[in-house]
Amino acid sequence: MERLTSLKNPQVQLWRSLKDRKARREHGLFLVEGRKSVEEALSSGFPAEALLLREDTAEQGALPENVKKYLLPEHVMAAVCDTRTPQGIAAVMRHREIPVEGRRLVALDGVQDPGNVGTIIRTADAAGLDGVLLSPDCADPYSPKVLRATMGSVFHIPVAVVEDLPGALTELKAKGLPVISSQLDGTPFHAWKEAKDGFVLVIGSEGNGVSPAVRALATVRLRLPMRGRAESLNAAVAAGIMMYQLME
């Protein structure tokens, strides 16, 4: 097990750079923090590049033998990890391209809050959907904050960032999947009963909603009832209600 003690070490500098979206894309790597999340990642089929172990926790629990391990003092581990109180273990994982297929999908159109993106991925997993599509301006699904919010679900359900979301939705629509645009000026959600053979539910950005290009190609535009005085629902809450209802 190699011990790295300097923040100037090239390996350490690479791992620290993975907090940045551009570096994650450039290297095809991302960092997973905490024992439970690391266990989920290692059992998911995503390739593991390295395991990072803080010195005082290096002997805790069984670790895979086929992954290179590095021993880090506390200050180096803290610099590499995004959390303020890292649990003493992290994994450097390589991106794995998993096609998003199936007939029950959710698409995020410019959802930028990491907590919302992670929660929607987690809820899609829990509700039994087949996959999640994200437009390029969504929060990165492999950022530290999104990963924490997914609670491991990013390793259970296919998630893909598509460069042309309207184009991808057009292809899915041609395959017979209705594209459901969630928006405040839509028709009542519970009055629509035509999702038995599949759907693509589109959740728009927190500030601007569904983009005009996606809105134009939608099969149907739906809204949840707002019986109280709130102007709107949190994006992840609205997505959760709709996903569970559509899966019934």
Describe the structure.
The chain has a six-stranded parallel beta sheet. A five-stranded mixed beta sheet has the order 1-4-3-5-2. 32% of the residues lie in helices and 23% in strands. Helix 5 (114-127) links the parallel strand 6 (104-109) and strand 7 (131-134). The longest helix is centred in the middle third of the chain and has 14 residues, at 114-127. The relative contact order is 0.14. The chain folds into two domains: 2-94, 60s Ribosomal Protein L30, Chain: A (2-Layer Sandwich); 104-246, SPOUT methyltransferase, trefoil knot domain (Alpha/beta knot, 3-Layer(aba) Sandwich), CATH 3.40.1280. Helix 5 (114-127) packs parallel to helix 6. The termini are far apart. The protein has nine helices and eleven strands. The chain has 248 residues and is an alpha/beta fold. The protein is elongated.
- Tell me the helix content: 25-40%
CATH homolog superfamily of the largest domain: SPOUT methyltransferase, trefoil knot domain
Strand and helix order: EHHEHEEHEEHEHEHEEHEH
**% residues in beta strands:** 15-25%
| Structural class category | alpha/beta
Give the tally of structural domains.
Answer: 2
At CATH's second level, what is the architecture of the largest domain? 3-Layer(aba) Sandwich
The Rg value, from CA coordinates, equals: 20 Å
Total strands: the figure is 11
Calculate the terminal CA-CA distance, rounded to whole Å. Answer: 50 Å
Shape: elongated
Instruction: Report the top-level CATH class of the largest domain.
Output: Alpha Beta
Major beta sheet summary = 6 strands, parallel
